[in-house]
Design brief:
The chain is α+β, with helices and mostly antiparallel strands. It has 24 helices and eight strands. The chain folds into four domains: about 220 residues, Up-down Bundle (Multidrug efflux transporter AcrB transmembrane fold); about 110 residues, Alpha-Beta Plaits (2-Layer Sandwich), CATH 3.30.70.360; about 240 residues, Multidrug efflux transporter AcrB transmembrane fold (Up-down Bundle), CATH 1.20.1640; about 70 residues, Alpha-Beta Plaits.
Amino acid sequence: MHIQIAGKLTGRITKWIVLVAVLVIAGIMGSFAGKLTSVQNNEAESWLPESAESTQAIQRLEEFQDPNDLVTTVVYYKESGLTEEDLAAIESHGPEIAQLEGVSNVITPEAAAANGIPAPYVSEDGQVAKLDFTINRGDELWEDMPDVADQIRDITAIDGVEVYVAGAGGTTADQAAAFAGMDGRLLLITLCAVILILLVSYRSPVLWALPIFCAVVGLGIAMGLLYLLAKYADMTINGQTQFIMTVLVIGAGTDYALLLVARYREELRRHEDRHEAMAFALHRAAPAIFASASTVVAGLLCLMFAELNSTAGLGPANAVAVAVTFVVMVTLLPALLVICGRWVFWPFIPRYGSAEPTESGFWARTGNRIAPRPRTVWIFTTVALLIVALGALRLDTSGIPNDETYVSGHDVESVAGNELLVEHGLVDASSPIQIVASTEQADEVVAAMDGIEGIQEPVVVAEKDGTSLILANLTADPLDEQSIKAVEDVRDAVHAVDGADAQVGGWTAVTLDIEEASARDNRVVIPIMLLAVMLILMGLLRALASPLILIGTVILSFAAALGISGVVFDLVFDRPHTDPGFPLYAFVFLVALGIDYNIFLMTRVREETATKGTRRGSLIALASTGGVITAAGIVLAATFGALATMPLTFALQIGTAIAIGVLLDTMIVRSVLVTAINLDAGGRIWWPSALDRKPPVVPPASDASEEPEVRVTV
């Protein structure tokens, strides 16, 4: 940022104008922020691209059923066996459930037998019975299902009998309940963690409040803007996008604040006028913050190349949030800092002319330990990280099965109910395989499915305008590997029927298509993102060698983080399966956020190189940025670590992986590996630029006498 612009933003009068303007915008957008959940789309079908077979099948299925129909199964279990009185009570529940709003097609055990439904509704051992019904509340179904589940529990209560709301409806109810109020809890946990870290980092009872206030303002403006984009610009927002946005904005915003405040504190020691100090701080820190935010935004926008709508939507939504956060942090935060004055740093107030403590701190000593043998250090560190990365072989990205979807696992009601159905030989009829095919070839399609393992006998249940609907109930949990394999076999079989134009849909088919689309997105998006980040680094550092080195170190850090995560997920969490999109999400956030710390470091290295040379500049940069970057890394790790408090396994895994990766990048990759490579390569890192090469920069004698002697092995 040009120093004149920086000065105008924080002038004696303009600081008040900036404050009022940002707060007015925050008030307007904040009024829309609370409505963001009302425009979420959490249906799995909405995540799929138009090209997916299950998406096309869903469109054809609209001829036979309302897409908002949701089949729900009530599971009754009694270890000693259900009595005649229990079964009679179950029959009495049918009419009561049918009176609920939007409920239709209630099937009790006796109704199933009377209508000739072949699937049993009471297990052979007499311990389990089930009742099915369909519910349709239109677009309000997701929000209503937790309350509907509560009503069902009240109606179906029987003394001595365990009752579970399961099937597709029960799963939806549990998922909606898990997301309900989650954003508020997550925000509170994240803020508490960040406040604690800022108190320790700043050692001030006051200063922490300004970055937190600005981060919350940025989050409110971003949420309001995203509500308008989702409502009027058809942007896809789901619960997953929103909870990631919460931690991303708080974490990234606090990081930007840490960098700016650290530079402002340096400048306060050099300038008596705080307005002048902030102008210089913004002038020197804003480019690094802008480059950091641009990298994150570019990385997130690369997700638009994803085939999955949920992934493609996550990118622009969070990119908007990060862009808003950057603007708030370089406008509102500087204004508040100069309005408050030096006292906000109390009790460690940076006085004009006082010494800079980073010159002899921990990171200065760390740099001097690396300096004598930098090549040995970076080779040893690289080998160690490669060994750790082998743990990634334990990751299973085939998808999270139903019994691992929640952190509490089997204790979740729908999971326990679905397991009872499978264990006692009953079929979950709420999620059958659905095949739409030409009526003329319907019998051939049914015949082609004969003998496929994992499904019951397929049945033609309806036909209309030359198209037939064929259903085949699964014999295992819809998300079990056996069910996934059954869908693959069904597709192979029905596609082979000439002229049938058969397409396979249903919940399991949707899951399979999501897995396949995620695999494609991993192959396409990751290289695009690496190229985008590389171009940003080349423009920022005006070199080719150093951006290549930084990209390599971040990839190595990502691999090591996956390695540690693979071991933790399997041996600690007992959740070895991950979502198919996990590698891409982890890569996007770890690379985009991990490169931030290298940007903070390397922009300072380049600044110091101009007068002191690459090797001494690297040591000075490490000493001056080490503390703030470490604090920023801990803040970001804590914010993403807050995701581990959520009930969903996906949130636990992505939060843990990013927290591990950020700490690795902050403590080892940036401070040890990158610094060691800089010291070993010297001015060659700026190739093809002539900086510190043609000719090499010779540090001034005064500088050399003030700095401790450093021996660098080349």
